[in-house]
Amino acid sequence: MARTKQSRRRWPSRLHFVVRVLGLIGLAAAWVGVRLAALENLLPPWDADQPAWDNVRALADHAYSSADYNVRAVIAGDPGDLLTRVIVGLLLVGGALALFLILVELLVALRFVAGRRSAFGTNALLQVALAVAVLVGVNYYSFAHYFRADTTRDRQFTLPADVQNQLRELKGETTIVVYQRHKTFGALSDKPDRYDYAAERKVVEKVKDLVDQFREFGPQFKVLVLDVEQEDYDNQLRELPEGLRLAIDKAPENSIFFHANDRVQRLSFNDFYQLDKTASQEANDGRGNLVLRYQGVKPFADKVLNIEEKKPRVAVAVTHELLTTGGAAEEYTLAGLKKVLEERGFDTRDLILKKWSRFAPPEPAVYTYDESKYERLADRVEVLTTQLALAAKQLDTWNKIPAQELARRKFDEEFRKEQVQNWTALVEQTTKQKDLAVADQQRLQVESLAEQRRLTDVKAKMGRALADCDLLILPRMTLRNVTLPPFNIPSGVHRLDDAQVAAIKEFIKSGKPVLACFGSVNESPEDRQPPPPGPDRLEELLESLGFRLSRQTVLFDREIGALAEYQATLQGRREADLMSRGDDSDVPPLVLERAPKEGEPAEKALNPIRESLRLTARGLGKGQSLDLRARHPRPVGFEPKNGKAPAVEPGFLLTDPDSWSEDQPFPTEKYLPRYEETKKRGPATVGVAAEVEVPNDWYEKGEAPAEPRKVRVVALGHGSLFVGATLPPAKEKLLLDTCNWLLGRDDELARAGRTWSQPRVALTAREQTWWDWGAQEILPELFAFLGFVVVLVRRLR
Questions:
Q1: For residue 420, is pLDDT > 80?
Q2: Angle, to 10 degrees, between the axis of helix 161-168 and the axis of helix 298-305?
Q3: Which residues contact 417 (CB under 8 A, 6 or more apart)?
């Protein structure tokens, strides 16, 4: 009898268990149906501009109509789309089973509560209902009244007020692409280590955190992480807009891209968080820890807020086509300079300031690279036209020469055919070359060339060419190697006309910056072409601003062996060997700091370019430095004309201490350059950056402004620093920092800022022992004791 009653009591429990299992299966089936429906785009999109309830109602209406249609189609025998029918079946059957489970659980709960027949049961039911109502109400209210609190001590997750106000005014969608090319953090080393990879991962995390802050105030931001090592990288890249895709393809390093309204801006990882590998290696008592230097939110925000800003235009003024950014000879071209600037959002333009001729001295001119090429092609077309006319005339003569005349000249018919064939081939070849030259001319954008030809005023021409430029670069490549005189460029090649110098003076007067890369002016005693008489007006112009351009050349102690070998060659004691001559790797790199001499006053504030380069060098690790090398640089200095000491130290590049300044750096049969006590020992300053006041004597009477106009100028004592088809990373960094500072974009330079380090708990050896002992022994024993206490309590019951 007891067994029968017990069996009767068990079957409701077993039935309840079966119902719960079926309900859970129904929930799983309904969830699978929802996921499949989302993948197949069978659900209506969620409209963020509408209230949540409207979206839910639209979703329910769509589900009801779809279910009704598919059920009727199945009853009618319509085969339809099998996958759609399966999805609808899963939703219907699974939803029904889940609903059945909920109803059964509610009935069981009501029976349990009502069966108590006491105020306690009713009170519990009311409390449950009230808790549910409060939970639903609080969540509904939170969606409409969102509030975000930043409880960090320094409010590191709160944007500055000015950035918040600007973001509120933005409209439209901005796509932010975090591009992981796995190029070494900062692109200055080809051997990444654990700090480089850790910094890369952390920057991706920080970008996502920052974008979450942007979403609070600006438009809808879409974030995409592109990793070249992921399998779906190519598919993700193909789905991006063409302009953004092309910008990503050209990116040389890990970058952050901003895309809106078909415009693209790029930010390097290093411009957002800069790795301080030196500090990372020294942290945690030498055991190491990741240390990053936060560059602030402004560079990031500027890319978003100024995504449609005009690209800064940089004019590169040289005196020969070979020295331009499009020059064909790798040892003279500035193609690497153009590549670096355009990758960073600059626009470059070449200005050729001399017109060269085979039979006459060069003339002052102002041509763009395309215009110079157009002129060269025009000359070629003219020559080919003349050659074509002569060849066509000869062909016509051989075709029409009478047989009697041919016999009189003792030529036969076979000879005539051979001549006709040769002249026909020459006509065809010349015609083809002429057509190619004409086609090249037509592809060049030189609509204003005819108007430029009519302008005979060189100053006016150059003024018009510089009018829409924001920065002027004046590279003067001269002394490449004193042991290879034929490969050097005489300084006289770079001399400008007075009208051209006047145009540059007007450019500076307008407050626009200049980067002057002036090489050594020393000439070889064997040079048969003496330099032009008189001073260089452009150098005089810079000296009137306070810059001192020495006429000496810096030589390094390491070069003495090569200089002695070259002297032996001149003396005939050994054969010339051009292959054994050194390159820039033979000279020591330039330095950013010099040791103060005894009794010297404290150094002024650091030059921002120097500080940026110094912090970048710290990203290479302990004992590493930027590989900035320059053979035979020229000392430069700065003395303000107004007598006021500059607040910031102007010098930022110096030579190695093992160097000296030389008046005659070229070895001869009787003279070998070497250091003597009468010569100035290094280090010598070869890079100066200063913000100067435009002198009052530059203005005409009554033209001077009430407040002196300030302009930024950088003078580098080497004309070949940025020469080459590609630039090494260190020179790339120097170029970018210099240009950004000149244009007033100081936020683009690396700065100390706030450091971030991976949170770690520093423990002594004794504390570490206690921690290990507690985790491995005390905690297990504690929980074993608590478990034993629970067993004893249950036995008492």
A1: yes
A2: 20
A3: none
